[in-house]
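Quick start: read one record
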Amino acid sequence: MSPPITWGVEPAPLILACILWAVYIRRWITVRRSSDRAQAPVWRLVCFFCGGLTIVVAQGNPIDGLGDHLFIFHMIQHLLLLDVFPLFTLFGLNRVIMRPITRRVQWIEQRIGFLAKPWFGLVGYTLGMWIWHAPVLYDAASRHDSIHLLEHMTFTTVGFLYWWHLLRPIPSRDRMTSMGPMAYMGVTKVTVGLLGMALTFAPRALYSFYDDQPAWWNLAPTTDQMMSGALMATEQVLIMGVAFGVLFMRGLREAEVQAQREERLMDRAEAKAAADDAAAEADAEAARRAADTGFMRI
């Protein structure tokens, strides 16, 4: 037996996506027409568009409707809001595109204190997943639209905050360097991966909400839960792998830029030292000539 499937778009997420697209496209076109044209490639525009589209798809049907009947589609919603939306959105941004609001963002980060620290993003991401998958809260969110909305807002917020610290497009004193990003992702992979494994290998169905559902597509609640946990664990591995690759490539570019900067500084230092030596030799030569001239006069 198949669950009822409907197709449609929710107005609120579509309006939000259209506002984001309008603001971004205007700025993207401005950068493309400036001397910083290279900082606004088409692939960034495509990524940002996909970020807005992710919200529309995650909150629309059939995913939202099927999430009311099957755990695995509710899990798909969570992962789209938690990881896919923030990743696409941040891939569409860089320091040049965000230049008009850079100081404002930095001012906000300074005012909110520890809330802007990487450790808070990691803790928020992990606790957000664990807390909202506790049976009492998950069942409440499944039965009440207001709690369901709060759940999705939580996932979107903690997901964006988590990925912001890894892929942040504007400079910050709190930016992670060296092995920081690897440890950051590694801790998350373990903590959230354990939740996925717990759902996968749980001996019984944990959420009473699905006990009242028919066996859609002949999926028992335990099977549905097992598939959802496996999806969570697999998604964590894949997403973290992609993020690791991006961070590795960015680290190589930053290392190359740093090496070039150090080489230029070294060249300048050597040139200055050579100029100083030449000036010193010229002064010494002038002094010798003056001494010789004085001796001949005597």
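Residues 11-265 form one domain.
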